[in-house]
Amino acid sequence: MNLTEQLIKAKTFLHSDPSLLQWDKEYLWHPFTQMEEWLQEEPLVIERGDGAFLYDIEGKRYIDAVSSIWCAVHGHNHPYIVSSMIDQISKISHSTLLGLSSVPAIRLAEKLIAAAPKGLKKVFFSDSGAGAVEVALKMAVQYWHLRGEKRTRFLRVQGSYHGDTFGSMSVGYSDAFHKPFQEMLFEADTIPSPYYLKKTKKITEEEAEKESLLKAEEFLEEHGSQTAACIVEPLIQGAAGIIPHSSRYLKSLYDRVKSYSVLFIGDEVAVGFGRTGTLFAVEQAGISPDLLCLGKGLSGGYLPLSATLATEEIFEAFLAPFEEFKQFFHGHTFSGNSLACAAGIASLEIFKKENTLKRLEPKLDLFWSFLKEKIEPLENVMEVRGKGFFAGIEVGKNKRENFPVEFRAGKKIMMKARSYGIIFRPLLDTIVLAPPLNIQEGILKELLNGILNSIQEELR
Ligand SMILES: Cc1ncc(COP(=O)(O)O)c(C=O)c1O
Q1: pLDDT band at 99; cut points 50, 70, 90
Q2: Of 430, 428, 425, 431, nearest to 448 (Cα)?
Q3: Distances 352 to 16, 133, 302, 340, 436 between C-alpha atoms, Å
Q4: How far apart are CA 328 and CA 190, in angstroms?
Q5: Which class in CATH covers the domain with range 44-74+358-459?
Q6: Ligand 1: which of 68, 265, 269 to mutate, most ligand atoms within 8 Å of CB?
Q7: Any idea where the domains of the chain sit in the sequence?
Q8: CATH number for the segment(s) 82-353
Q9: pTM of the model
């Protein structure tokens, strides 16, 4: 019996308790959820997880097709992460990084720098993806300030999402999410995404990339000297609907940005830790950002932990005698939480011990050939897109026409998939698949067949 099995056996789990359903509605306010709709429905309450599976309070088993919003990269209750956390909790759960250091934070920082693209030398811990982005934006602005330059503009790619704090909303603005706050946000300059250019102008991918890069060039030519940084979700914009761009585009954008001495921020909160097939997505473009934001899978998805990695050059700009007050005045109570860092160390070790990325390769072939050969040809599937274990299946009335929003096609398929024992959360009418990287081949097939059946049955 492995450790996970022992732990499951040792534990007496709650059994169906009707008061849980009632209290959920009475006391909880769920994130990104229209609560009016939620209150009319029966919530699905999860009690435990094991590998690629989640179990509800009735004991029903579901495949976690989105790794609990893209973070449980090694699945749930992984024995090595669990035992590392138990080991750490028996020593201490948390001690501050303000004025003290801690063994797990030091060890994780060392491992991250060893694994990260070269050039990144320092790790600043926070506790959410938005927090890591906020730190990157502030570091960029203060870096230029310390160098005697006023650079407060940011460049971003259309459609990007970087979190829900004010800074991250500013660089990831969308009308649907952020309209009430619009006047309070700082303005970020947006270059058109090659994906939308290709779609709307009916041009080739190369032409679309060229046009997007030209816009970036024009902007940088005019405003580069006032621009602190360009922020990009490398290879895939997640929340936008799993919108891909090529590594060629990423590299060209990076080169242009750097040629104007503007900092480049890679937001790998969603794509970091293997999601696109390599440990970090930027590796595929052969680039090393000045600032790299990590979250979600950093702790294996077990505890809230994020990090902003910075170059030596950025770090050194903040060095000065104390009385000059040049330090980075930013921190969180739980920055570098010991328990979360212990999970992070274990997660990085698993990538090596289990050869996770190598073993992912044949599963990627299976995943993409199923998606492209069996799902994309369906009448109601407009497009299948993505990279690695991060796919979006956009459904529509037909190949060219979206459903009206109120039809809730994505939600309908989500509910149907539950009857097949599959949990995912759509982005409007885009079904998102982001399974744990170590999902077994048989379970992956079950997942793909379940999604195929759900689309066919729900939209026929
Ligand atoms: C690219 C990206 N950046 C930042 C965030 C925000 O992370 P968090 O929800 O942990 O604040 C997300 C969340 O989905 C994301 O996808």
Answers
A1: very high
A2: 431
A3: 39, 27, 18, 19, 16
A4: 27
A5: alpha beta
A6: 269
A7: 44-74+358-459, 82-353
A8: 3.40.640.10
A9: 0.95
